[in-house]
Design a protein that fits this description.
alpha/beta, 384 residues, Dehydroquinate synthase-like, alpha domain, two-stranded antiparallel ribbon
């Protein structure tokens, strides 16, 4: 079997944004998270582009968890400006939004709803793409996927190797001032990405190496970040870990935790990272019978006791999630039983259609997906 490792060109460290002045951009569309724009974090990126007299257009508009319709203003700006580079500055939602704008700018006749990895997009005929993450969790700057919503809330998961950014510029200082809730949600994402990359049926030695490194960095430094938010060294380590985990998951695949989190996010306005943090311990316990050997490779890193039995890994990571402030159950995260229970068949059906359900070490039945949601609602151990 032949495998591939797909990674963007990476520049990291305090001078990473200087790469922007070396792109030779003539016209650039800069897409910025509105919260990032309020703090002015995009200024350094714009200053670098202006060193070469690049014509700029700024869109500080895409909302968190954007719908396909939310992309229209960005597509209109791109169509008017005709950029040769598109730059995303923000978290995962902003980078995904920029990817969607990029696809629509290059191929206006294509609908994001109908894209599959088998469709040749033909990107880069008009523009290339740069991602500058300002959060430390999604890994969108290294991935070949993007997630949107339809107007009714249903998820649209777009995947194409062409969506991997040309450049990912990692300046950890952009993430040092993340508020506690964003720090917690993004940290949970790093853990979920790393664990699911390791357990994936499509994992390989290169994705495993990155996932393990990201996992160790996250487990080591996230408690420090939770206790000392101004610890720049720890925050920088987590920032790099997020991209490593993003590369790993992009080259293996997500699993059931992501499938369930995406389904839940279609109905409940709770950050996907927080949902992943709640779901991850239950999914680790569920996967253990099929992923025992893969989890066993973590023994030299986490200690043999962490992988000895089904509940060991969940017990190992729950204290870290608790330190971050991730709720232990869906109920504690604000989802009531009266709201969730009637939706269980629908959510299980949606999760079953996610790519994460296929690449998971155990391909779940609808009954098992329902059971995981029921356990995550109030807590308990997996016995199926």
């Amino acid at each position: 079997m032949m495998g591939f490792l797909t990674v963007p060109r990476l520049a990291f460290g305090a001078g990473a944004l200087e790469q922007l002045s070396a792109l030779g951009a003539r016209r650039a569309l800069v897409i910025v998270d509105p919260n990032v724009a309020r703090l002015g974090k995009e200024r350094r990126a714009i200053e670098e582009l202006q060193k070469t007299d690049t014509t700029l257009e700024l869109w500080a508009g895409p909302p968190v968890d954007p719908s396909t319709e939310d992309l229209a203003p960005g597509v209109a700006l791109a169509t008017s400006l005709q950029p040769d580079w598109i730059l995303a500055v923000g978290g995962g939602s902003t980078i995904d939004a920029a990817k969607g704008v990029w696809v629509r700018y290059e191929r206006l006749e294509l609908s994001l709803d109908g894209l599959t990895p088998l469709i040749e997009l033909g990107l880069r005929r008009k523009a290339r793409f740069v991602a500058v993450p300002t959060t430390s969790g999604s890994g969108a700057e290294a991935s070949w996927t993007a997630t949107f919503r339809r107007e009714g809330g249903l998820p649209v998961e777009v995947a194409s190797r062409e969506l991997v950014p040309d450049w990912a510029l990692l300046d950890p200082s952009l993430a040092w001032t993340m508020p506690p809730e964003v720090t917690a949600d993004s940290g949970a994402q790093v853990l979920a990405h790393a664990f699911e990359a390791i357990a994936s049926e499509w994992s390989h030695p290169f994705s495993d190496a990155l996932a393990r490194e990201a996992l160790v960095a996250a487990l080591t430094h996230l408690p420090r970040v939770a206790k000392h938010p101004d610890d720049e060294e720890a925050r920088s380590a987590v920032h790099y870990a997020a991209t490593m985990a993003g590369v790993a998951i992009s080259n293996s695949q997500v699993g059931v935790a992501h499938a369930l989190a995406t389904a839940l996010a279609s109905e409940f306005r709770i950050p996907r990272g927080r949902l992943l943090g709640v779901l991850l311990p239950f999914v680790l316990e569920y996967n253990f019978p099929a992923a025992r050997d893969r989890y066993g490779t973590l023994a030299p890193l986490l200690g043999s006791g962490a992988v000895q039995h089904r509940a060991a890994l969940p017990d190992r990571i729950r204290p870290v999630l608790q330190q971050l402030g991730i709720p232990p159950t869906l109920e504690a995260a604000g989802i009531s039983a009266s709201h969730l229970v009637p939706l269980l068949p629908l959510l299980a059906e949606r999760a079953s259609k996610s790519p994460g359900a296929v690449s998971n070490p155990r391909v779940p039945s609808l009954e098992e997906l329902t059971g995981l949601l029921e356990l995550a609602l109030r807590g308990g151990h997996v016995h199926f």
